[in-house]
Write a structure and sequence with these properties.
Layout lengths: L1 E2 L2 E2 L10 H134 L4 H19 L1
Antiparallel strand pairs: 1-2
Length: about 180
């Protein structure tokens, strides 16, 4: 029926229509088959490719992480060895420095002792030489005094004057 340009269908929206249900089901199955044939395969293939790429990236990341951890452990070991070696070198250098210092001090002490000994010996020689010289002068003066006394048989006052004169001569010779 047609009333004022509007077609009124009989039945409501909630009333089951077997023809509509059949054609809806057939259309759904056809669309499902078309999607399965043309879209489902490529979509699943793309998803599988993406999954493989992600898994490959994860595997590479794990491998890189393991390699980095191994390198880090190796670097830590090398650093520990280098620290130990540096400490050993410093300790050996310190020991060598101490030994060298002790050797230098001992050598300087030995040289100082030698120099002191040499200086003492030289002083002793100079002292002996001066004493020998003094003895010779005293002996010469005594001989001269004895000569003068013997030559001049003089009285006590003159002898005292001669001895005083000799003492003055002795003082002059010493200076």
């Amino acid at each position: 029926m047609l009333t004022s340009g509007i077609v009124i269908l009989s039945g409501g929206l909630l009333d089951p229509n077997p023809g509509l249900i059949f054609w809806t089901a057939v259309t759904f199955v056809i669309v499902l088959l078309i999607l399965k044939k043309f879209a489902w395969g490529p979509i699943l293939g793309a998803l599988e490719e993406r999954e493989k790429a992600i898994q490959s990236s994860i595997d590479r990341a794990h491998t890189a992480k393991d390699e980095a951890e191994a390198a880090l452990r190796k670097n830590k070991e090398l650093l520990t060895k280098a620290d130990a070696e540096a400490e050993k070198i410093l300790r050996e250098g310190k020991e060598y420095g101490e030994k060298l210092r002790a050797d230098i001090v001992e050598k300087a002490h030995s040289e100082a002792t030698k120099m002191i000994s040499s200086a003492k010996e030289e002083i002793e020689q100079e002292k002996r030489r001066a004493l020998d010289e003094l003895r010779n002068e005293v002996a010469d003066l005594a001989v001269q005094g004895a000569e003068k006394i013997l030559m001049a048989n003089l009285d006590a006052d003159k002898q005292k004057a001669i001895v005083s004169s000799m003492i003055q001569d002795l003082s002059k010779h010493r200076n």
